[in-house]
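Progress against Task 2.4 (sequence-to-structure conversion) is shown through the following example record, which the project officer requested during the mid-term review.
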Amino acid sequence: MSKLNIIFTTSIYVSDEHHPKPASVFIPEWYKKLESYINGSKKPIGDGSSAATAKRCMPVFDAIAGGYIIVSSADVFVSQKENLDGTKSPYFEWANNNLIGFHPIEQMPEHPNRNGHPEYPKWMNSWAIKTPKGYSTLFVQPMHRESPFTILPGIVDTDIYTAPVNFPFVLNDINFEGLIPAGTPIAQVIPIKRDEWQMSIGGETERVENQEVLSRLRSKFFDRYKSMFRQPKEYK
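Structure tokens generated for the chain above:
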């Protein structure tokens, strides 16, 4: 089976170290340091389960390593600027590449993530993405990673729309001040196949299937989902 190809293209110079890369290259430090079992003890804990940590949870790993990561190409510094009415608002400065733009707050005045922003800052992404026919791209905040900001997620039909997609975001702390260094992950890029879906509620067949899965899970102490159900996912 041939591999699908996702193409990242930029019209400006971006150093190799700040090119998009598979998300597996950006495994967060907290995850690397986490032991696989609480207190390093790989043994049952008395209720039929083990003392496994999130390090053994493949859905967490697959979320961290899924797709590709776009990073910032230059430093951004955030300070607090005093307004005429005495309040303060975040003020953004960047070293190069026109990195930050803005959307008027009126475009989404009641968005649950507004967080007090007078306007929505956005990462001005220089990378255009092209996916195979029938595939769109999901853009989300890089998952399970510490960050001073959160982008607002979106889906773009990148098999047809092959211009750069920018990423509106909010500061997680509206009073944040400090450096967001070049190379910071700003968006996780996950190609998704467009299909037609229809929802239904499961019945007896599905309930039996659920019980069979649970029964198989209970036959092992360790790596149940990983060894029995997880399917390989490859992003190169």
